[in-house]
Amino acid sequence: MRTPQGTPVRAEYAVIGSLLQRPDLAEIVHRWLRFEDFVDPWMARIFRALVEQRLYTHPEVLAADPTRRLDAVVRVVMPQLQQNCTDARERVAPQVWDQLSAGMTGHLVSPDITPHREAALEYGREVLQDAIRRTVIERGEIITHFAGNHTYPNLGVVEQAAVAGVDDLADLDRRWELASPAWLTQEPTEEIPLRGAELPASTDADLLLAALVLNPKRVGMVRTLLRPRDFGGEGRPDLYRAITAADDRGEHLWGRTDLVAWALQVRSDHGYRDSGASRSDIGRMTTTVFRASVRHTATQGGTLIAHLASQGVGATRQVLGAAQRAVGAVARQARRDPGLERPVAAYGAAVAR
After folding, report:
1. How many C-beta atoms surround the C-beta of residue 155 within 10 A?
2. Over the stretch 132-185, which tens digit does the pLDDT of each residue have?
3. Residue 117 · residue 111 · CB < 8 Å
4. Cα–chain-centroid distance for residue 181?
5. Which CATH code fits 134-353?
6. CB 3.0–4.6 Å: which of 8, 28, 89, 263 could bond 130 by disulfide?
7. Which of 166, 123, 198 lies closest to 321, judged by CA?
8. Where in the chain is the domain with CATH 1.10.860.10?
């Protein structure tokens, strides 16, 4: 068995090597580490058998003399690995298994792999820390993928990806808190700023703003969904604020000849010969502008948090905080879509790929 040198997987070997020798530490590690946190499939299987299936409480292990405890752990864990194999092809012939398990155990408990057998908690935290960064990268990439995939015209897959991300990150945040000793609470907690590219101006957004300037009676059906941040381009958010503020006062902006001239020019540039706008046109443009805004937010947020995690920017708690803010914003924004659908099958199949 070869052990990756200088990689996060090395901590996986070390935590297993430590727990094989100090199974009494398994109950503490079990509070915050999961077999899904492991990259190496064999280390994940051993962790699942020893810790999650609680073989560290096996009577033979508890009764063993401390000097013989490793032998007792191996005797109860290794056969369980065989039983846990759901695919018969993964099972190993008994005569081969004895040699394989002895070699594996000797390798894992060697000083080269586990220099400090008492350090299961420290090794486990390294495994969890790597799992947190991998999950942030994965969630960022999944959200970015769905935000840029117009095969799904509604925001159901974006919202579902974001909600799943919120749940995963909340679980990791809770577990990192449990895994953190007192000195780790001193790690930096300042928020990492998330500054992505600004939402660009769009034809639909300009046509919608022009229609609202010229048809103030349509403002009410738009403002229930759109916010100023949903408009990109210089001056557009401020124009939308002015339109909604005038609506609050029961007024219109027809007295602003500069705005009226701009609105008429925008409509003329795109082939409109009058100032009217039907409810269906307003509804279509509103939906288009809103979904473009959500997709932009999701793409920028997903890309930024994946970059933070992959580049090792910030402490673990800071990366988790940034990821939770970005993913939570996407989930809240996507959930506002009145035509929201949740294509569970499409989402699950795409993530599985």
Report:
1. 27
2. 999 999 999 999 998 987 766 668 888 889 999 999 999 999 999 999 875 555
3. no
4. 25
5. 1.10.860.10
6. 8
7. 166
8. 134-353
SS3 183: helix
Q: Which of 346, 287, 320 is nearest to 187 (CA)?
A: 320
Other C-beta atoms closer than 10 Å to the C-beta of 284 total 13
CA–CA separation, 240 and 223 (whole Å): 9
In degrees, to the nearest 5, what angle opens at C-alpha 113 toward C-alphas 107 and 117? 100
Phi, psi of 118 (to 5 degrees): -85, -5
Q: What is the mean pLDDT of residues 232-244?
A: 95
- Distance CA(151)–CA(153), nearest Å, equals 6
- Cα-based distances in Å from 259 to 1, 45, 194, 284, 322: 73, 67, 33, 23, 39
Tokens coding 222: 């738009």
| Whole-angstrom distance, CA of residue 327 vs CA of residue 298 | 8
The two structure tokens encoding residue 327: 């993913």
Instruction: Scan for tokens 């002895």, then name that residue.
Output: 102
Cα 146 from chain centroid? Answer: 13
DSSP string, 320-350: HHHHHHHHHHHHHHHTT-TT----HHHHHHH
Q: Where are the alpha helices (DSSP H) in the chain?
A: 9-21, 26-30, 41-47, 59-63, 69-84, 94-108, 120-148, 156-179, 203-214, 219-223, 236-248, 257-269, 279-310, 316-334, 344-352
Residue 310 corresponds to which tokens in the numbers above?
């992959």
